[in-house]
């Protein structure tokens, strides 16, 4: 499988629960390297732009309000099959449906406050990493 990069966000609920380190540990144990990282409080404009693909969905306003409700931690992860591997570590969007042992099963409380974001395709990963990081903020490939 190819060496890939993906964009991950620890959402405001998980930052508030003080589980940044626990989530980072899961990435590391799964052989995903954190190659870029920053904490930020998204503006309305940043959150709307990031989730632009969901603009017409009924949950869009709630999603943007939630993502701007507190600080988040944004990271690029690198490793073999990183995009799918991260989605597997995250578990299903709705934590009630997430498999035991996944990040969302363990730390998320609702479909809105669901702890983490992860890119869902190679095209999304490329767009989302560039959305948050300049090239000089990402570790060079090893
Ligand atoms: P994410 O983009 O945050 O990684 O989540 P995802 O791929 O698992 O889910 P996606 O379909 O991209 O939806 C983005 C976020 O919108 C909220 N959502 N609410 N009420 C609903 O039916 C609903 N559906 C989605 C979730 O918080 C989801 O993470
Ligand atoms: Mg998504």
UniProtKB/TrEMBL annotation:
Q: What is its EC number?
A: 2.7.4.6
Q: Where in the cell is it found?
A: Cytoplasm
Q: Which residues form the Nucleoside diphosphate kinase-like domain?
A: 3-140
List the record's Gene Ontology CC terms alphabetically: cytoplasm
Pfam families according to UniProt: NDK
* Transmembrane domains' residue ranges: none
Single GO molecular function? nucleoside diphosphate kinase activity
Cite the active-site annotation. Answer: 117
InterPro entries for this protein:
NDK-like_dom, NDK-like_dom_sf, Nucleoside_diP_kinase
Q: Which cofactor does it need?
A: Mg(2+)
Q: Which PROSITE patterns match?
A: NDPK_LIKE
Q: How the protein assembles, per its UniProt entry?
A: Homotetramer.
Q: What job does the chain carry out?
A: Major role in the synthesis of nucleoside triphosphates other than ATP. The ATP gamma phosphate is transferred to the NDP beta phosphate via a ping-pong mechanism, using a phosphorylated active-site intermediate.
| The family this protein is said to belong to | Belongs to the NDK family.
Q: Mind telling me what this protein is named? A: Nucleoside diphosphate kinase
């Amino acid at each position: 499988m190819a060496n890939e990069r993906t964009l991950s966000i620890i959402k405001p609920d998980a930052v508030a629960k003080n589980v940044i380190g626990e989530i980072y540990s899961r990435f590391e144990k799964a052989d995903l390297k954190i190659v870029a990282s920053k904490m930020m409080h998204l503006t309305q404009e940043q959150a709307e732009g990031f989730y632009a693909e969901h603009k017409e969905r009924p949950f869009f306003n709630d999603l943007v309000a939630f993502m701007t409700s507190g600080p988040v931690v944004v990271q690029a992860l690198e490793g073999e099959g990183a995009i799918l591997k991260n989605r597997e570590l995250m578990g299903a969007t709705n934590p009630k449906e997430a498999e035991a042992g996944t990040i969302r099963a363990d730390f998320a409380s609702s479909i809105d406050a669901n702890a983490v974001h992860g890119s869902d395709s190679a095209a999304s990963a490329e767009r989302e990493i560039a959305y948050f990081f300049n090239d000089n903020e990402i570790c060079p490939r090893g």
